[in-house]
Fold this protein.
Amino acid sequence: MKQVTTTVNISAESQPIDALHQTLRDKALEAARRAYAPYSKFRVGAAVRLANGEIITGNNQENSAYPSGLCAERVTLFYANSRFPDVAVTHLMICAETDEGVLKNPITPCGACRQVIIEKENVQRQPIEICLAGRDEMFIISSAAQLMPLAFVPESLDNK
Ligand code: THU
């Protein structure tokens, strides 16, 4: 029997955090506030930092035909890639709020978003630090690959 194990290296940081993480958290939260989420009222914001120093933000976009919407992580990564296709992503920060305020616990990206983050990691051959901000605590995961063992990757298409 083959066994695949995965390790998730999570460092849990309490506030205060360093300046970069603080900036990314603030920008992700600002983006969450602009989310178009009238159906779930669950507003998610993401901020990605690129190797050239640019910070790109985005948020979830819902639709009355529910499956037509898209998560904040994919909106943000696709937009970043459309503007800077050849620049590596170094960090992806995620946070969410409802009408009751910022969520107490960090949220993790859904499976489809993990797939998209991992594709970028594979193409750029450099890990993306995943930062998940809750109200008073932030989880930092060193690579998206840890979040999805046995992911389908570009090389999977060339498996002869
Ligand atoms: N959502 C995200 O944007 N990111 C996540 O990581 C989880 C879920 C969105 C999808 C939908 O608009 C709303 O949150 C409720 O699921």
About this structure: The chain has a mean pLDDT of 95. Residues 119 and 153 are 6 Å apart (CA to CA). The two ends are 23 Å apart (CA to CA).
